[in-house]
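for the record, two folds in this file. i put them one after another cuz i was lazy. first one right below, seq on top, structure tokens after. the second one comes after a little note so u can tell where it starts
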Amino acid sequence: MSIEARSDQYSLTSPYGYTPDAWVGILFIVIFSLSTACHFVQAIYYRLWFMLPTAVLAGAIEIIGWGGRLWSSYNVLRNDPFLMQIVCTIIAPTPLVAASFIILGQIIHRLGQQYSRLSAKWYSIIFICCDIIALVIQGVGGGAASAAVNNYQSPTPGGHVMLAGIVFQLASISFYMLLAVEFIMRYLHDRPIGGRICVHTPYTFDSKLKQMVGALAFSSICIYIRSWYRTFELADGWDGHIITTQRYFVILDGMMIAFAMIAVNLFHPGRLLGPWHTWRSWNASAEDDRREQKAQEEPQSGRESAGEGEMWEMKKQGV
């Protein structure tokens, strides 16, 4: 059976505008189940607990969403599976984006915060907050759309709210990618942000860090492509050409998120950056380095101030 929408007697009255292919639903349920199971095992093995409410949660929501599409392939006229799949597949990548923010923060810690406009701590805080806001907006919109459909009303207002959440998330991902690119370029050319103190780190941009940066870039680009697709999809309307064409959804949503999750499976931060206890010890040592540098600068600053005071007194006395 082609991945194109099947032209059967139900397609014209289906909320999709077509009947989802069952084999596609099964394929993606298997892919996301395997990837999510691997993420769960990897998170436990490397003790990277933040991967549980991020990558694992994203995979679980994707499984539910694709389960709804599989359900629709057997009962396309029901609204429940349609709403289940559209809400879940829209919000599912949001936790995965949060994992990217945390991983990048650790990379910034290791290569030097003097090359980043935001500290690793604030980088994670700001962008994860943006991610949560986007998730809430999308969830509210999805709930409104679901309630409207169940009450035989138009889901368009709820869709507009979901669209606002996706656009907000798209903007935050855009800033995240720009700052990340600037950080890497500044590091490679050894150009710290003006006035920043260079903090010595025991790490170099070795092959493992390069692999992690590459995987993070690939995953982020996949999510970015998917975000643009969902933006155009919802902007086009619930009965527009984009949302009623199955191949667009499969390629630009399902495949993009699957690629993003599998990339982090293959190039896992636990394998490339080490288990969680090495992350914590580095965080502590970096803070100790900053305190030591600050302590070294204060006496020097005091000596310079004292020297300037003595010169001023000598000038007053005409010496």
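(here's the note) second protein begins now
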Amino acid sequence: MHYKRLATAGVAALACAIGTGAACAQSSTSVTLYGLVDTGIEFLNHAGTNGSGSVYRLSPGNVTGSRWGLRGKEDLAGGLSAVFVLESGFNSDTGTSGQGGRLFGRQAYVGLQSQWGLISLGRQINTLYDLFVPLDPVRYTSYGLLAQDAQFANRADNAIKYTGNFGNLTLTGMYSAGYDATIANGSEVPGNPRIGQEIGAGTSYTIGKLGMVLAYDQRRGTSAASAENIERRYATGLLWTDGPFTATAGYRFLQGTIAAPSLRAHLYWIGGSYNFTPAFVVRAGVYRTDRRDSPNDAMSYALAMAYTLSKRTDLYLNASFMDNKGASTLGVVNGGTVAPGVNQTGVVAGIRHIF
């Protein structure tokens, strides 16, 4: 993503005006404004509540969610830095805020960073999101891995997080005292710290052309009645890069959900990408959800093509087909559903501009 530096000197001067001269003389401060807008025209069939009817619509965030944000850093003594990120997601088709109407729904955190890593506090992406974007064959477009399991791109309120990068090794861990503060009495409840609790950890390692990822994510229910209901995700994946060609494969085991603690489900995926030219890339993936002891399985096929017009603007065309078995209700779009057992096809073409 392209970032544009604000008037750093003016920001630093303002900080000095409200702080101490000695501190300002010893520190370097920067604040960056950044963002992107992603909007397309989408076709979906079987989009009605009873599985009938098609829809043509403007659709936001088809490759990456539209956003704007502020990112800042202050250099402190001994290689230590104070950092912050305030990132607001929005729906570019309507102008409304995303992530449940939050002002800074994508990220809002402050922390300390050194050669040993970053410790951050606030609303943050989970460890699955940290690690699995490169492992999705279509790179987290709305038709890919997220259509099978949206938790791979979720966030947590009230979170403390550690991220460390040591050469080819990345380590990350997160604890949230309540991952969804919009639910009344669903987080940070006195006397019951398990309500809305989330724990995550993961690692990635690269050896030459091969990359490997391993992660764990656990969430509890957001009420006193469901706090003992736990959903656990164990996920792993491989990434192979050789020149313009990339291949990926992954697996996730889901043990229970908040609503159905006895559920067990496997998710497998495989795919890859090829850069035909520096400006044109094609990605494709196949994803399968297999629910244990249940006929409600699903398989989806996704294709994503992008053509870069400049460093900041690209055009894209994405397509997907979701094949639902039994009473499965997965739609092709991230978070979307269809009538039980109904298949769905989606196609979207659009433009993305980064600033």
